[in-house]
Fold:
Amino acid sequence: MKKIFSAALFFIFLSGSQALDLSDLQSSLADIFSSSIDPNEGRTVFRSMNIPSGGRSEALGTAFAAVSDDISFFDYNPAASAVLDTSEIAVFHNAWIADSAQETLSFSQRSGNLGYGAQVKCFYVPFSEYNLYGDRVAGSYYSETSAALNIAYNFLAGYTFKGLAVGGNAKVAWRSVPDYTDNRDDSIISGSGLEQSALGFMADAGLLLRLNALKFYQDRDANLKLALTLNNFGFALTGFGKSVQKDDDTPARISFGLSYRPFSRLMITTEVRKPLLLSDFSSSGKISFATGIESQLTKIFAFQLGFLLQGANPRFSMGSEFDIKGIKMNVAYTLDLTSSANPINHISLSAKIRMGDRGRKEQLQRVDESYLEGIKFYSEGLYDEAIQKWEEAILLARESPLCIKYEPAIQARKTALRFNRQKAELETFYNIPMD
Structure:
């Protein structure tokens, strides 16, 4: 395992070092994707809301709205907390471009079909001010900090039909601009940064539908997922300490995603996004496209590749994930031609701790045992005993923490009751006992 980990890291960092030497890459790609240049780009505030927290979701090209099977869902689809297998807590570090970075702390838990969680993240970049003579007169950090509360519910959840998950995030964000100096005497002007700082209120909403289609392996999890999300809808205020006024629009977007797992160790995901300028829909940005692929090479090791086209310059990414005793470690490398004028490489790391499923797996095993005992009784002609076991399975499945509709037992019970009813009708008609 250590050899795999070392080889993977070596490959990622080697790829990054080679990318630095591709000086003509940007101009070549810009020519290819010149038709994607977006004249309406950059007209919103709190742009850090579009920066991925990092790790696996970024390695998949950020095409994660329909995947959303771990705590990275906060940035993509708030409905996912209602369907996560386990409770999770995670930390993310994304070393972004131009010495900037983003730190994220997330928590999510599920109770039956109800999911909830919270996330805090902070994007920051060094801010230095120089006077007319080139002397440094002030130094601090520009930052954007946000907090989100999540709630979601999975409606019509069952054994066969996995349900329709609906969820939302409520967000508050603060843009902190440091005070700047007076050009005449280099003295810091108290409150000058506050005037340019901003307070934002935003909300996300999402749908997640899980189905089975063209599935070439045996597994209880759905292999096809569809997602529809609305992200960062809200408003921002600025001018504090002087004259509070509405700031530019928040970076709202609508997204549609699809993920498909044809085989147990292979997943393909894609996503289409449309930025929305809430104050003037006609000036909204162009549609962007993201896609990713994941290969589960071993039980504990997976590898991801991703691509994002947003504007004329693309973003390529790759990453790996290691699952060791309930702790998932992610390393992702990105060649980012979307956010910079030169080929820029950055690394993101994440650690996710899985804290158990609150007894769901154990209860599902009990449900399965009752169902199989019912099958055994039925095969022996003990129909009443079979019905009793299937009713037991149905009730167990409906109870917390599982809270699902167990269709196999429901269908089997219906079949047995129909047989008993027909048997009784025959006994009455012929007036003879039927053993």
